[in-house]
């Protein structure tokens, strides 16, 4: 269904907006556990606008937000007099759970407000159509931009058939990411490092190129923030990385993209991309098949530049030191001539710039 058919935000009251914002806040609670499904929140309010129940999609394969919310509605409450706020179009198909649209109809709900249409071809307006055909009042588009931003990873996969790509690097005040001969140089302060580890918990995978893996020997795990480790991705066309590097320690799932055949082993997969085949499309196709919805690309500049030149990015996060200088001979940060600055803030001795 075309989002242009959505009811304009002016048709909603400030109280409607307040309750949808609450539903969006609830959706975030499923950030680590609902994926690869989208984050969804649901609020049920009575005729006076008072919240009588809430829910969110808590676990992939488990009950959806609408189910959790409706199951918490007190028995004395008449759902026919309530309004249900849900951040994503209720599903209309049988998957791991029954259709939420059917449940809303069966429970006698008469008024539903939806933030975003679901672009999944299995839904794609069918849930809204089913509700309307049952005589339910349905309005859509409330806080639509906020909802798309919340589920930007899901929308990118559904609409572009590739994961959401976040390019991230730290650069010195004079624009370098490493010292001479690509030697690692401490750039970011403690607060910024903690933030980066939080970012790692929020994305399904983390990716580096050959040089960064060789020079930095990164662990690419989460050590300074609670949350799941991402899947590690590394490009190693000629299989030149030492087997003793952290990437091969088996501590977390790791995928190596190479031009050479290599057998898989515990927690380590090798994907052969023929030398004559374009590398980036092959990687993105493989990630799509693995249902990986987002990748934090941590380096290095060669990989970042390749993605930038191909237009394959959705967000760029640059941490710039206010004090560290590297000087001539260092590795220059990827060139940026972008508009669309979403965020700029100071984090200890560093500045964060987010584009996208």
TrEMBL record:
Its EC number is 3.5.4.26, 1.1.1.193. In the C-terminal section; belongs to the HTP reductase family. The lineage of its organism: Bacteria, Pseudomonadati, Bacteroidota, Cytophagia, Cytophagales. Residues 14-139 form the CMP/dCMP-type deaminase domain. It comes from Hymenobacter gummosus. This is Riboflavin biosynthesis protein RibD. Binds 1 zinc ion. It catalyses: 2,5-diamino-6-hydroxy-4-(5-phosphoribosylamino)-pyrimidine + H2O + H(+) = 5-amino-6-(5-phospho-D-ribosylamino)uracil + NH4(+); 5-amino-6-(5-phospho-D-ribitylamino)uracil + NADP(+) = 5-amino-6-(5-phospho-D-ribosylamino)uracil + NADPH + H(+). One of its GO terms (molecular function) is 5-amino-6-(5-phosphoribosylamino)uracil reductase activity. GO terms for biological process: riboflavin biosynthetic process.
